[in-house]
Amino acid sequence: xxxxxxxxxxxxxxxxxxxxxxxxxxxxxxxxxxxxxxxxxxxxxxxxxxxxxxxxxxxxxxxxxxxxxxxxxxxxxxxxxxxxxxxxxxxxxxxxxxxxxxxxxxxxxxxxxxxxxxxxxxxxxxxxxxxxxxxxxxxxxxxxxxxxxxxxxxxxxxxxxxxxxxxxxxxxxxxxxxxxxxxxxxxxxxxxxxxxxxxxxxxxxxxxxxxxxxxxxxxxxxxxxxxxxxxxxxxxxxxxxxxxxxxxxxxxxxxxxxxxxxxxxxxxxxxxxxxxxxxxxxxxxxxxxxxxxxxxxxxxxxxxxxxxxxxxxxxxxxxxxxx
Length: 323
Ligand SMILES: Cc1cc2nc3c(=O)[nH]c(=O)nc-3n(C[C@H](O)[C@H](O)[C@H](O)COP(=O)(O)OP(=O)(O)OC[C@H]3O[C@@H](n4cnc5c(N)ncnc54)[C@H](O)[C@@H]3O)c2cc1C
Known about the structure:
The protein is an alpha/beta fold. The chain is 29% helix and 24% strand. The protein has helices at residues 18-27, 42-51, 64-67, 71-84, 95-108, 215-228, 236-240, 271-274, 294-297, 306-321; strands at residues 3-7, 32-38, 56-60, 88-92, 112-116, 118-121, 127-133, 138-143, 150-153, 168-171, 204-208, 231-234, 261-265, 282-287, 300-303. Strand 11 (204-208), helix 6 and strand 12 form a beta-alpha-beta unit. The protein is elongated and about 60 Å long. The structure holds flavin-adenine dinucleotide. The site of flavin-adenine dinucleotide (FAD) has 28 residues, from helix 7, helix 8, strand 14 and helix 10.
Protein backbone atom coordinates (compact mmCIF):
# COMPACT_ATOMS: atom_id res chain seq x y z
CA UNK A 1 0.00 0.00 0.00
CA UNK A 2 1.11 3.53 -0.67
CA UNK A 3 2.81 5.40 2.12
CA UNK A 4 1.10 8.30 3.89
CA UNK A 5 3.30 10.64 5.92
CA UNK A 6 1.93 11.84 9.25
CA UNK A 7 3.75 14.65 11.04
CA UNK A 8 3.71 13.81 14.75
CA UNK A 9 2.68 16.44 17.25
CA UNK A 10 4.31 15.73 20.58
CA UNK A 11 5.36 17.51 23.72
CA UNK A 12 8.99 18.51 24.33
CA UNK A 13 9.40 15.48 26.57
CA UNK A 14 8.19 13.10 23.86
CA UNK A 15 4.57 12.52 24.83
CA UNK A 16 2.48 11.78 21.74
CA UNK A 17 -0.40 14.25 21.44
CA UNK A 18 -3.88 12.88 20.85
CA UNK A 19 -4.14 14.66 17.49
CA UNK A 20 -1.31 12.46 16.18
CA UNK A 21 -3.44 9.37 16.90
CA UNK A 22 -6.33 11.05 15.09
CA UNK A 23 -4.10 11.70 12.07
CA UNK A 24 -2.97 8.06 12.07
CA UNK A 25 -6.60 6.93 12.07
CA UNK A 26 -7.33 9.16 9.06
CA UNK A 27 -4.11 8.13 7.30
CA UNK A 28 -5.04 4.43 7.46
CA UNK A 29 -7.96 5.16 5.14
CA UNK A 30 -5.49 6.33 2.50
CA UNK A 31 -2.61 3.87 2.80
CA UNK A 32 0.19 2.79 5.13
CA UNK A 33 0.93 5.47 7.72
CA UNK A 34 4.52 6.48 8.38
CA UNK A 35 5.06 8.95 11.20
CA UNK A 36 7.60 11.74 10.84
CA UNK A 37 9.06 12.53 14.26
CA UNK A 38 10.97 15.75 14.84
CA UNK A 39 13.54 15.89 17.65
CA UNK A 40 14.29 13.38 20.40
CA UNK A 41 11.89 10.75 21.77
CA UNK A 42 10.73 9.11 18.53
CA UNK A 43 12.10 5.69 19.33
CA UNK A 44 10.43 5.58 22.73
CA UNK A 45 7.14 6.69 21.16
CA UNK A 46 7.16 4.04 18.41
CA UNK A 47 5.21 1.55 20.53
CA UNK A 48 2.36 4.00 21.11
CA UNK A 49 2.35 5.05 17.45
CA UNK A 50 2.27 1.39 16.36
CA UNK A 51 -0.85 0.86 18.47
CA UNK A 52 -2.63 3.30 16.16
CA UNK A 53 -1.43 1.79 12.92
CA UNK A 54 1.91 3.47 12.25
CA UNK A 55 4.00 1.08 10.18
CA UNK A 56 7.14 3.20 10.25
CA UNK A 57 8.49 6.07 12.28
CA UNK A 58 11.05 8.32 10.59
CA UNK A 59 12.99 9.83 13.47
CA UNK A 60 14.96 13.01 12.76
CA UNK A 61 16.63 13.49 16.13
CA UNK A 62 18.00 17.00 15.61
CA UNK A 63 18.08 20.01 17.91
CA UNK A 64 17.14 22.26 14.98
CA UNK A 65 13.40 21.64 15.47
CA UNK A 66 13.39 23.12 18.94
CA UNK A 67 15.76 25.94 18.02
CA UNK A 68 14.24 27.39 14.84
CA UNK A 69 10.41 27.69 14.82
CA UNK A 70 8.59 25.74 12.05
CA UNK A 71 10.80 26.04 8.94
CA UNK A 72 12.99 22.99 9.73
CA UNK A 73 9.94 20.70 10.00
CA UNK A 74 8.76 21.84 6.55
CA UNK A 75 12.24 21.19 5.17
CA UNK A 76 12.37 17.71 6.64
CA UNK A 77 8.95 16.86 5.22
CA UNK A 78 9.93 18.23 1.80
CA UNK A 79 12.97 15.96 1.68
CA UNK A 80 10.89 12.93 2.73
CA UNK A 81 8.25 13.76 0.11
CA UNK A 82 10.98 13.84 -2.55
CA UNK A 83 12.48 10.60 -1.25
CA UNK A 84 9.39 8.50 -0.50
CA UNK A 85 6.81 9.90 -2.95
CA UNK A 86 3.93 9.42 -0.46
CA UNK A 87 0.25 9.42 -1.41
CA UNK A 88 -0.40 12.27 1.00
CA UNK A 89 1.01 14.19 3.94
CA UNK A 90 -1.23 14.74 6.96
CA UNK A 91 -0.47 17.39 9.57
CA UNK A 92 -2.48 18.63 12.53
CA UNK A 93 -4.63 21.67 11.77
CA UNK A 94 -3.00 23.61 14.59
CA UNK A 95 -1.43 27.04 14.10
CA UNK A 96 2.00 25.46 13.67
CA UNK A 97 0.69 22.56 11.59
CA UNK A 98 -1.04 24.88 9.14
CA UNK A 99 2.09 26.99 8.74
CA UNK A 100 4.15 23.87 8.07
CA UNK A 101 1.53 22.71 5.53
CA UNK A 102 1.71 26.01 3.66
CA UNK A 103 5.51 26.03 3.58
CA UNK A 104 5.61 22.39 2.46
CA UNK A 105 3.12 23.10 -0.33
CA UNK A 106 5.35 25.89 -1.66
CA UNK A 107 8.49 23.76 -1.40
CA UNK A 108 6.95 20.77 -3.20
CA UNK A 109 4.70 22.64 -5.66
CA UNK A 110 1.70 20.83 -4.20
CA UNK A 111 -1.86 21.68 -3.30
CA UNK A 112 -2.77 22.11 0.35
CA UNK A 113 -6.13 21.68 2.09
CA UNK A 114 -6.62 23.08 5.59
CA UNK A 115 -9.30 22.74 8.26
CA UNK A 116 -10.30 19.26 7.11
CA UNK A 117 -12.73 17.54 9.47
CA UNK A 118 -12.60 14.22 7.65
CA UNK A 119 -10.32 12.52 5.14
CA UNK A 120 -11.31 9.57 2.97
CA UNK A 121 -10.13 7.98 -0.26
CA UNK A 122 -12.19 9.23 -3.22
CA UNK A 123 -13.49 6.99 -6.03
CA UNK A 124 -10.19 7.39 -7.86
CA UNK A 125 -8.27 6.60 -4.66
CA UNK A 126 -7.09 10.20 -4.28
CA UNK A 127 -7.46 11.71 -0.79
CA UNK A 128 -10.72 13.59 -0.35
CA UNK A 129 -10.95 16.18 2.42
CA UNK A 130 -14.19 17.40 3.97
CA UNK A 131 -14.03 21.07 4.97
CA UNK A 132 -16.66 23.27 6.62
CA UNK A 133 -16.72 26.71 4.98
CA UNK A 134 -18.30 30.11 5.67
CA UNK A 135 -18.58 29.48 9.39
CA UNK A 136 -19.77 25.93 8.86
CA UNK A 137 -22.80 26.91 6.77
CA UNK A 138 -21.59 24.83 3.81
CA UNK A 139 -19.43 21.72 3.58
CA UNK A 140 -17.13 21.11 0.63
CA UNK A 141 -15.27 18.01 -0.45
CA UNK A 142 -11.92 18.86 -1.98
CA UNK A 143 -9.10 16.99 -3.59
CA UNK A 144 -5.61 18.04 -4.61
CA UNK A 145 -4.78 17.75 -8.30
CA UNK A 146 -1.21 19.02 -8.27
CA UNK A 147 1.74 17.44 -6.50
CA UNK A 148 1.42 15.56 -3.23
CA UNK A 149 -1.80 16.27 -1.33
CA UNK A 150 -1.02 18.05 1.94
CA UNK A 151 -3.93 18.04 4.36
CA UNK A 152 -4.19 19.80 7.72
CA UNK A 153 -6.80 17.99 9.82
CA UNK A 154 -8.61 19.81 12.61
CA UNK A 155 -7.84 18.42 16.09
CA UNK A 156 -10.70 16.41 17.62
CA UNK A 157 -12.47 16.02 14.27
CA UNK A 158 -11.52 12.35 13.75
CA UNK A 159 -12.00 9.86 16.61
CA UNK A 160 -8.76 7.98 17.22
CA UNK A 161 -9.16 4.23 16.68
CA UNK A 162 -6.50 1.75 17.69
CA UNK A 163 -5.14 -0.71 15.13
CA UNK A 164 -2.41 -2.54 16.98
CA UNK A 165 0.78 -3.30 15.12
CA UNK A 166 4.49 -2.65 15.39
CA UNK A 167 6.13 0.41 13.92
CA UNK A 168 9.66 0.09 12.51
CA UNK A 169 11.95 2.96 13.48
CA UNK A 170 14.13 4.48 10.77
CA UNK A 171 16.63 7.18 11.69
CA UNK A 172 16.76 10.13 9.29
CA UNK A 173 19.74 12.45 9.39
CA UNK A 174 18.72 16.09 9.23
CA UNK A 175 20.30 19.49 9.51
CA UNK A 176 18.26 22.60 8.77
CA UNK A 177 19.49 24.90 5.99
CA UNK A 178 20.64 28.45 6.80
CA UNK A 179 17.37 29.73 5.30
CA UNK A 180 15.34 27.61 7.72
CA UNK A 181 17.36 29.03 10.57
CA UNK A 182 16.20 32.56 9.78
CA UNK A 183 13.93 32.78 12.82
CA UNK A 184 15.42 31.57 16.09
CA UNK A 185 13.60 30.60 19.26
CA UNK A 186 15.22 32.80 21.90
CA UNK A 187 13.17 31.83 24.93
CA UNK A 188 10.47 29.37 25.90
CA UNK A 189 7.95 30.21 28.57
CA UNK A 190 5.79 27.35 29.76
CA UNK A 191 2.21 28.55 29.84
CA UNK A 192 0.63 28.31 33.24
CA UNK A 193 -1.62 25.34 33.01
CA UNK A 194 -4.13 24.45 35.64
CA UNK A 195 -5.86 21.13 35.96
CA UNK A 196 -8.13 21.91 33.00
CA UNK A 197 -7.61 20.23 29.62
CA UNK A 198 -6.16 22.20 26.72
CA UNK A 199 -8.93 24.07 24.88
CA UNK A 200 -8.38 22.65 21.38
CA UNK A 201 -7.94 19.09 22.63
CA UNK A 202 -10.66 18.94 25.27
CA UNK A 203 -13.54 16.47 24.98
CA UNK A 204 -15.85 18.99 26.68
CA UNK A 205 -15.71 22.78 26.33
CA UNK A 206 -17.84 25.15 28.39
CA UNK A 207 -17.84 28.63 26.85
CA UNK A 208 -19.28 31.79 28.30
CA UNK A 209 -20.45 34.93 26.56
CA UNK A 210 -21.50 38.49 27.31
CA UNK A 211 -24.52 37.05 29.10
CA UNK A 212 -22.26 36.34 32.08
CA UNK A 213 -22.28 40.11 32.63
CA UNK A 214 -18.84 40.71 34.13
CA UNK A 215 -15.46 39.21 35.01
CA UNK A 216 -16.97 38.08 38.27
CA UNK A 217 -20.05 36.66 36.56
CA UNK A 218 -17.80 34.69 34.21
CA UNK A 219 -16.50 32.64 37.16
CA UNK A 220 -19.66 30.53 36.96
CA UNK A 221 -18.35 29.24 33.61
CA UNK A 222 -15.13 28.07 35.26
CA UNK A 223 -17.17 26.38 37.99
CA UNK A 224 -19.28 24.50 35.46
CA UNK A 225 -16.19 23.56 33.42
CA UNK A 226 -14.48 22.17 36.53
CA UNK A 227 -17.55 20.18 37.51
CA UNK A 228 -17.51 18.56 34.05
CA UNK A 229 -13.73 18.21 33.70
CA UNK A 230 -13.97 20.57 30.74
CA UNK A 231 -11.89 23.34 29.18
CA UNK A 232 -13.11 26.93 29.40
CA UNK A 233 -13.82 28.94 26.26
CA UNK A 234 -15.12 32.46 25.74
CA UNK A 235 -16.77 34.58 23.08
CA UNK A 236 -14.97 37.61 21.72
CA UNK A 237 -17.32 39.91 23.60
CA UNK A 238 -15.86 38.45 26.79
CA UNK A 239 -12.21 38.55 25.78
CA UNK A 240 -12.53 42.07 24.33
CA UNK A 241 -14.07 43.21 27.61
CA UNK A 242 -11.07 41.75 29.45
CA UNK A 243 -13.19 39.33 31.49
CA UNK A 244 -11.12 36.36 30.30
CA UNK A 245 -7.80 36.06 28.40
CA UNK A 246 -7.78 36.18 24.59
CA UNK A 247 -6.06 32.78 24.47
CA UNK A 248 -9.44 31.23 25.34
CA UNK A 249 -11.47 32.94 22.61
CA UNK A 250 -13.38 30.56 20.38
CA UNK A 251 -14.25 31.60 16.84
CA UNK A 252 -13.05 33.01 13.57
CA UNK A 253 -10.35 35.12 15.18
CA UNK A 254 -9.81 32.74 18.08
CA UNK A 255 -9.40 29.01 18.53
CA UNK A 256 -11.22 26.33 16.56
CA UNK A 257 -12.61 23.56 18.71
CA UNK A 258 -14.42 20.35 17.86
CA UNK A 259 -15.16 18.62 21.18
CA UNK A 260 -17.66 15.86 21.90
CA UNK A 261 -19.68 18.40 23.88
CA UNK A 262 -19.74 22.20 23.55
CA UNK A 263 -21.78 24.26 25.99
CA UNK A 264 -22.50 27.85 24.92
CA UNK A 265 -23.64 29.79 27.96
CA UNK A 266 -24.90 33.34 27.45
CA UNK A 267 -23.54 33.37 23.90
CA UNK A 268 -25.75 34.64 21.06
CA UNK A 269 -24.18 32.48 18.34
CA UNK A 270 -22.79 35.07 15.93
CA UNK A 271 -21.39 33.63 12.69
CA UNK A 272 -17.85 34.47 13.79
CA UNK A 273 -18.31 32.47 16.99
CA UNK A 274 -19.92 29.55 15.18
CA UNK A 275 -16.94 29.36 12.84
CA UNK A 276 -14.87 28.09 15.73
CA UNK A 277 -17.26 25.55 17.27
CA UNK A 278 -19.84 24.46 14.73
CA UNK A 279 -18.24 21.05 14.16
CA UNK A 280 -18.62 20.12 17.85
CA UNK A 281 -20.36 16.75 18.10
CA UNK A 282 -23.10 17.88 20.52
CA UNK A 283 -23.95 21.51 21.24
CA UNK A 284 -25.91 22.67 24.28
CA UNK A 285 -26.99 26.30 24.56
CA UNK A 286 -28.19 28.17 27.62
CA UNK A 287 -29.63 31.57 26.73
CA UNK A 288 -32.47 33.70 28.05
CA UNK A 289 -33.48 34.78 24.53
CA UNK A 290 -35.44 32.02 22.74
CA UNK A 291 -34.63 33.73 19.42
CA UNK A 292 -30.85 33.66 19.93
CA UNK A 293 -29.19 32.25 16.76
CA UNK A 294 -27.20 29.73 18.82
CA UNK A 295 -30.40 27.68 19.15
CA UNK A 296 -30.37 27.13 15.35
CA UNK A 297 -27.32 24.90 15.70
CA UNK A 298 -27.85 23.56 19.23
CA UNK A 299 -28.75 19.91 19.77
CA UNK A 300 -30.21 20.78 23.18
CA UNK A 301 -31.19 24.18 24.48
CA UNK A 302 -32.33 25.70 27.74
CA UNK A 303 -34.14 29.04 27.57
CA UNK A 304 -33.47 30.75 30.86
CA UNK A 305 -31.24 32.98 32.93
CA UNK A 306 -27.84 31.34 33.15
CA UNK A 307 -27.50 32.44 36.77
CA UNK A 308 -30.57 30.35 37.56
CA UNK A 309 -29.90 27.43 35.20
CA UNK A 310 -26.19 26.84 35.83
CA UNK A 311 -26.43 26.59 39.65
CA UNK A 312 -29.19 24.01 39.23
CA UNK A 313 -26.98 22.15 36.76
CA UNK A 314 -24.08 22.25 39.23
CA UNK A 315 -26.32 20.82 41.96
CA UNK A 316 -27.45 18.05 39.63
CA UNK A 317 -23.86 17.22 38.62
CA UNK A 318 -22.83 17.12 42.30
CA UNK A 319 -25.80 14.84 43.06
CA UNK A 320 -24.73 12.47 40.25
CA UNK A 321 -21.17 12.43 41.52
CA UNK A 322 -22.49 11.81 45.04
CA UNK A 323 -20.74 14.85 46.55
C1 LIG B 1 -13.98 40.14 11.98
C2 LIG B 1 -14.69 39.65 13.21
C3 LIG B 1 -14.17 38.56 13.86
C4 LIG B 1 -14.80 38.07 15.00
N1 LIG B 1 -14.30 36.95 15.63
C5 LIG B 1 -14.96 36.44 16.68
C6 LIG B 1 -14.50 35.25 17.32
O1 LIG B 1 -13.46 34.68 16.99
N2 LIG B 1 -15.24 34.76 18.34
C7 LIG B 1 -16.39 35.35 18.78
O2 LIG B 1 -17.00 34.84 19.73
N3 LIG B 1 -16.83 36.47 18.20
C8 LIG B 1 -16.14 37.04 17.18
N4 LIG B 1 -16.58 38.21 16.64
C9 LIG B 1 -17.66 38.94 17.32
C10 LIG B 1 -19.06 38.42 17.03
O3 LIG B 1 -19.55 39.05 15.88
C11 LIG B 1 -20.00 38.70 18.22
O4 LIG B 1 -19.99 40.08 18.47
C12 LIG B 1 -19.64 37.97 19.49
O5 LIG B 1 -19.46 36.59 19.24
C13 LIG B 1 -20.75 38.17 20.50
O6 LIG B 1 -20.39 37.56 21.71
P1 LIG B 1 -21.53 37.08 22.69
O7 LIG B 1 -22.38 36.07 22.03
O8 LIG B 1 -20.88 36.70 23.97
O9 LIG B 1 -22.33 38.41 22.99
P2 LIG B 1 -23.76 38.89 22.49
O10 LIG B 1 -23.92 38.78 21.04
O11 LIG B 1 -23.99 40.20 23.14
O12 LIG B 1 -24.75 37.81 23.14
C14 LIG B 1 -24.95 37.65 24.51
C15 LIG B 1 -26.04 36.60 24.66
O13 LIG B 1 -26.23 36.34 26.04
C16 LIG B 1 -27.63 36.21 26.28
N5 LIG B 1 -27.81 36.55 27.69
C17 LIG B 1 -27.67 37.77 28.28
N6 LIG B 1 -27.84 37.66 29.62
C18 LIG B 1 -28.10 36.34 29.86
C19 LIG B 1 -28.40 35.60 31.03
N7 LIG B 1 -28.39 36.18 32.26
N8 LIG B 1 -28.63 34.28 30.90
C20 LIG B 1 -28.62 33.66 29.70
N9 LIG B 1 -28.36 34.32 28.54
C21 LIG B 1 -28.10 35.64 28.64
C22 LIG B 1 -28.29 37.17 25.33
O14 LIG B 1 -29.62 36.77 25.10
C23 LIG B 1 -27.39 37.06 24.09
O15 LIG B 1 -27.88 36.07 23.21
C24 LIG B 1 -15.96 38.71 15.50
C25 LIG B 1 -16.47 39.82 14.83
C26 LIG B 1 -15.84 40.29 13.69
C27 LIG B 1 -16.41 41.47 12.98
